[in-house]
Amino acid sequence: MKKAIALLLMAVTPLAFSAQLDISRTNLRANTPGSDNTAAYMLVENLTKEDVRIVGAESDVSEFTELHSHKMDGDRMIMRHEKYIDVDAGESVRFAPNGYHVMLIGLKKRIKHGEQATITLKYDDGTSQDFKFDVIDPRKVAE
C-alpha cells in the first residue's frame, strides 16, 4: 500500500509546481533622498512549453510592490498598475524604463547602490518565486 501511495504521489507531484520563469539582468534603482518609491527591472524568459501569468509581486524592502507599465496616451506618458503580465511559452518580456517594471512603494529604508533586495513574483497558479536584485545608481539604469 505504501508503495502504491508513493507512486501516486510521484505521478501527481509535478502538476503542483508552476512553470518557473528564468529571470536575468535584475536591477533595482537606489532611491534618492526624500523619495520612498523606486522601480525594478529585469529580463523575464519563459523557457517552458506553458504560458505563465505573473499576478503580483512583493518585496522585503517595501510596504507595497506592484506590477506597472508606462503607456503613451496621446502626447503624455502614463504609469498604470497592471493586474497581471503574461509571459507566453518560449517568449520573453523585458521590464525596463518606459515599459513594464516592478514598482516598490513605501520603502522601509533607504536602499543604496551595492545592496541587494529580494522580489517575489507571484503566479496565477498560487506559486511564487524569489529573485535577488542588485541595487544600482539610478543614473546607470539602461533604457
TrEMBL record:
This is Copper chaperone PCu(A)C. It comes from Marinomonas colpomeniae. It holds the Pfam family PCuAC. Residues 1-18 form the signal peptide. It comes from the Bacteria. Keywords: Signal.
